[in-house]
Amino acid sequence: MKHHLDFEKPIVELQRKLDELKRHPESHSLAIRLDDEVQQIERKIAEERKRAFSDLSPWQRVHLARHPKRPFSLDYIRLCFSNFSELHGDRLFGDDQALVGGFAQIGTHRVMVIGTQKGRDTKENIRRNFGSAHPEGYRKALRLMRLADKFGLPIITLIDTAGAYPGIGAEERHIAEAIAVNLREMMLLEVPIIAAVIGEGGSGGALGIGVADRVIILENAYYSVISPEGCAAILWKDRTAAAKAAEALKITGKDLAELGLVDEILAEPLGGAHNDAETMAATLQRALINNLDTLTPIPVVERLKTRYAKFRAHGRFLENKPEPTTVAPPA
User: Fold this and answer.
1) What is the reported pLDDT for 314?
2) First-to-final CA distance of the chain
3) pTM of the model
4) Rounded Cα distance, 279 and 274, in Å
5) CA–CA distance, 274 with 262 (Å, rounded to integer)
6) Tell me, what DSSP letter sits at residue 28?
7) What is the rounded CA–CA span in Å between residue 195 and residue 192?
8) Taking Cα atoms as reference points, which of 106, 182, 174, 90 lies closest to residue 140?
9) Among 207, 227, 274, 302, which residue is least crowded by beta carbons within 10 Å?
10) What DSSP assignment string belongs to 209-265?
11) What is the pLDDT confidence band of residue 65, given thresholds at 50, 70 and 90?
């Protein structure tokens, strides 16, 4: 079943008209040159698609980041990497299938690749917990990262989650502590780390595998401390204000690059990554290899200092100095 977003409706209607024309050419007058009409509609579709996707709002990009047909971590692992060997379990509680990882190869580099994974249908989404990892998922990720550090393998993380799972069981098993430990330990790992936000980058659930020497984001992905709906519910007391919240949060690649929170934005095929997964994967693969080629020769001490400085620079604020007040002398 095809899934269309609201702003794609004019394109869908033109495509429906084109398909109808091609299916029933005999219903049209011989006076009409069918080929010319088909070409005209195809030009209109191309123009409308270019117009619709040339200036997307942050809220529209959020919808694209959540598109059910968008490539997920395992899709990129299949398309970008070779010799992937998945590893399971955190050796403490269980195997969280919302987070996958294992040994792989990309170009000439042997790496450890880790990613949050959503499902395509209801059954798989339940198995993957809709891409929201439990504490054991983050502990599994840390186990794999320590293994990579032991064997000198660069780490690549693929981020696509609305956030860590907020349920009672996750709280009982210390989800906040699991994420906090990952933040600390990733800052100290000696191997190169690259994080790529491929869809949703939600809150601590994303940051739990997001401390890296290079942070890449796809053009229609987002990276945020909270979802637009959650922000709208808190600030405006109305979840329908999500579009306004998405604008205020500065969560798109362009805004994040201006704020210094991401290092590189990868262009997506027209219409989004789901329209041409192979092309998007090739773009991501080139970016990952280029960054690995750049990071690998850097001495460990220098790389760790740069990583630390990178994240220390993320905290910025503006302070309004109060106007001086004049106190009248006593009468």
Assistant:
1) 84
2) 82
3) 0.84
4) 10
5) 22
6) S
7) 10
8) 90
9) 302
10) TT--SEEEEETT-EEESS-HHHHHHHHTS-GGGHHHHHHHHT-BHHHHHHTTS-SEE
11) very high
CA distance 3 to 295: 39
> 279 vs 160, 200, 274, 283, CA distance in Å?
19, 20, 10, 6
What single letter denotes the amino acid at residue 314? H
Distance (Å, whole) CA 197 – CA 160: 6
What would you measure as the largest C-alpha separation in the chain, in angstroms? Answer: 101
Could you tell me whether strands 155-161 and 99-106 are parallel, antiparallel, or unpaired per DSSP bridges? unpaired
Q: Which three-class secondary structure state does DSSP give residue 72?
A: coil
Closest to 217 measured CA to CA, from 254, 179, 162, 163: 254
Taking only the tens place, the pLDDT of each residue in 171-199 is 999 999 999 999 999 999 999 999 999 99
User: How far apart are the C-alpha atoms of 303 and 297, rounded to whole Å?
Assistant: 10
Buried b or exposed e, range 53-69, using 16+ CB within 10 angstroms: beebebbbbbbbbbbee
Q: Do the beta carbons of residue 273 and residue 220 sit within 8 Å? A: yes
CB 57 within 8 A of CB 5: no
Q: Which residues on neighbouring strands pair with residue 222, listed in sequence order?
A: 200, 252
The amino acid present at 26, given as its one-letter code, is E
Burial of 85: CB neighbours in 10 Å, binned 0-12, 13-18, 19+ = exposed
Instruction: Take residue 216 and report the two structure tokens written for it.
Output: 């890449």
Instruction: Determine the distance from the C-alpha atom of residue 86 to the mean position of all C-alpha atoms in its chain, rounded to a whole number.
Output: 21
